[in-house]
Amino acid sequence: MKKVQSTCNYCALDCNLDFYVENNRVIKTLPTKGYPVNDGFCCIKGLSLSKQQTTVKPNSLPKLRQEDGSYREVPWEEAFTYVADKLKQLQEKYGPESVAGISTGQLTMEEFAIFGHVMRNYLKANVDGNTRLCMATAVVAHKQSYGFDAPGYTLEDLELSDRIIFIGANPVVAHPILWGRVLQNKVPGHKVIVIDPRCSETAQNADCWYGLKSKSDLLLMYTIANQLIEKDYIDREFIEAHTEKFEEFKEFVKDYTLERGVEGTGLSKEQINELIELIHSGKKVSFWWTMGVNQGYEAVRTAQSIINLALMTGNIGRPGTGANSITGQCNAMGSRAFSNTAVMYGGGDFTNPARRERIASVLGVAESMLAEKPTKTYNQIIEGINAGEIKGLWILCTNPRHSWANNETFARAVKKLELFVVQDIYDTIESAEECTVFFPVVPGLKKEGTYINLERRLSAMRQVLEREENEISDYEAILGVGRALGMGAALKGWETPKDCFQLMKECSRNMPCDFTGVTWEALTDSHGIQWPYPEGREEENQEEQRRLYGDGRFFTASQKAQFMFEQIQENPYPLTEEYPFVFNTGRGTVGQWHTQSRTKEVKFVEDVSLKHAYIYMNPEIAREKEIKENDRIRVFSVNGENAVFSVKITDNVGKHQLYAPIHYVECNKLTLSSYDPYSKEPNYKAAAVRFEKCEEAGYV
Ligand SMILES: Nc1nc2c(c(=O)[nH]1)N[C@H]1C(S)=C(S)[C@@H](COP(=O)(O)OP(=O)(O)OC[C@H]3O[C@@H](n4cnc5c(=O)[nH]c(N)nc54)[C@H](O)[C@@H]3O)O[C@H]1N2
Ligand SMILES: Nc1nc2c(c(=O)[nH]1)N[C@H]1C(S)=C(S)[C@@H](COP(=O)(O)OP(=O)(O)OC[C@H]3O[C@@H](n4cnc5c(=O)[nH]c(N)nc54)[C@H](O)[C@@H]3O)O[C@H]1N2
Ligand code: SF4
Ligand SMILES: [Mo]
């Protein structure tokens, strides 16, 4: 029996797993003992990775749509040529920006790097990622506040902190292994605190829950900041030595009185004061945020208001502290720095001459071949298709027909495309319904590459199972199209994922994410390695749990962190008499992953998951509207769409709120085409809606 250690490619923990293989089948899966992230534990999704493609596997050859609408299977080379020719024709006819791609945070670093090379460098097309739906807010917040997109924490901080404050984060469901680290915290008197409009599964397991009004976090944080200053609960020494713009911030927050905070957040004076005292009495306070913060109409400023609290109280860089953004997908961190979409490989703006020179020399191409500007954002790509400006789209490892905000806009868009390539491990996903080309690729167990987790840890995906005839990986599919495009010498050095790893490593040299000291071989069967890990300084980086900012130096020109702030904005979609409920959305259960394509194959999960869309409703509202458990309602959104859900009654949601798990396509039918102005991340969690009881027979 062979044992292969590899990485779970669902959530951002990147747990490591040992796969035991016999006759090219996984006989058992054991979470890797001693691995610093998950040390012998993992969740149901990781344990079931070997179920992928066991019940719904597409054929291994690509499919092209014919004029009569049917599909024809063709050899890979023919499909590469078809796609390459079509891309070139579209660009000749409509201009370089008439083709676009949508990438992901779930592929290996090498896969989205080569996609960025073919699409962004060679074709000068726009490529955004599903990371826009997820981490874009944290990226912009980090860049502005710290000077680089560099979350500083290590997971051990959860065990060392005496105040663990989760804001818009539900790790009990979304990051169970991270929650496991919280449970290992032995600091006497430590408190777990949750700020979430919903009494989430995490709130139910916390010491304190603050159920504020939806999207009132920015007001709450400014109110807290003002009170901390008034009470002199701040760390003047740290502020003076390591930050800038505090005096302006201090003046600015004076308007955010306790009374204003109480009115706008719906929390009581006592609750806000209690929270302030909890922060002040903590010696090692850590703040952790996820999608309840990142997805909003003033999300970047909200993330930064959390960073401000950490800075002003000196809770950063020390064990157990930090303003810590929890990443979502397994390789969102990798995609942020190595997909060539918003920044160049390894970071740096597309206009930075020194970075251009460096990247061109590493890749062995002329500077003129490099992308010249950041990509159009996801929403601009979809709008561009709907406006008839973008005619070709290539999506990989993402299912936007389901997951995109106000998803009927995606459904409308794809009907207008002349070329729509979908590259996925399943041809049954919603997004594949309208595709003109389908590229079937192998899942993670049949390929290799590198992942970077939420605490900056590089981790190896290594091939567990042999491939069958005609089975190819994402990397090979992209390389195939690149070759068919005639990229020739521009693909020298990109032959295999391992070659690409070398290139990315060189691109990272002297950047904050420098991993030049890491080798492909050293990552195999390892404990993972956190960046930074520069060549020549391996000795000083031997500790397995490392954090940034311990020296109080940030990545800005002055090496000081910036207080970033702006007046709170009016909610663009406030509740009204006609639309009196907030439509909150998020993860439903530990077993279900996003659009469910993969987790549908896991019997334990399928057996206990509802087969149709459902929504949580407060008991008082249910009584008032004469609705019983499992009755169906039709929910109408301000976006003009409506959809049917069955009702689950619970007082975990407030009277002005409904909560819909995202795992059903109906959910995003109702979400908004509304974005944060800086990150362009969708405001997914706060559409205004109304509902009516359905009189037809219910689900069985
Ligand atoms: N089982 C499972 N795990 C997953 C995933 C999955 O699909 N399934 N997806 C992964 C990915 S990609 C991501 S990004 C993460 C997401 O991880 P999380 O962000 O933790 O998950 P969500 O359920 O989207 O949202 C978290 C909480 O935000 C709250 N919220 C809504 N509005 C507000 C608000 O205005 N203020 C505050 N403070 N809170 C608010 C919601 O009530 C919800 O409880 O999960 C990852 N893990
Ligand atoms: N309303 C609402 N909507 C949301 C959110 C929310 O909180 N509320 N959250 C948003 C967030 S944070 C995220 S991250 C997105 C996620 O949205 P998506 O990225 O669209 O969701 P997934 O289901 O993870 O899609 C991944 C796809 O990749 C395929 N796949 C798996 N492995 C491979 C592989 O190795 N290669 C290839 N090519 N394909 C593979 C799967 O079959 C699946 O179709 O959803 C967003 N949508
Ligand atoms: S916690 Fe995340 S990385 Fe770990 S096994 Fe579960 S889904 Fe995979
Ligand atoms: Mo995400």
Automatic annotation (TrEMBL):
Q: Which domain of life is it from?
A: Bacteria
Q: Which GO terms describe its cellular component?
A: membrane
Per UniProt, residues of the 4Fe-4S Mo/W bis-MGD-type domain are 1-57
> One Pfam family from the UniProt entry?
Molybdop_Fe4S4
Q: Which residues form the signal peptide?
A: none
Q: What GO molecular function annotations does the UniProt record carry, in alphabetical order?
A: 4 iron, 4 sulfur cluster binding; metal ion binding; molybdopterin cofactor binding; oxidoreductase activity
Q: For this UniProt record, give its keywords in alphabetical order, as a comma-separated list.
A: 4Fe-4S, Coiled coil, Iron, Iron-sulfur, Metal-binding
PROSITE patterns attached here? 4FE4S_MOW_BIS_MGD
InterPro entries from the UniProt entry: Asp_de-COase-like_dom_sf, MoPterin_dinucl-bd_dom, Mopterin_OxRdtase, Mopterin_OxRdtase_4Fe-4S_dom, Prok_molybdopt-oxidoreductase
Is Metal-binding a UniProt keyword of this protein?
yes
Residues annotated as coiled-coil are: 451-478
Q: What is this protein called?
A: Nitrate reductase
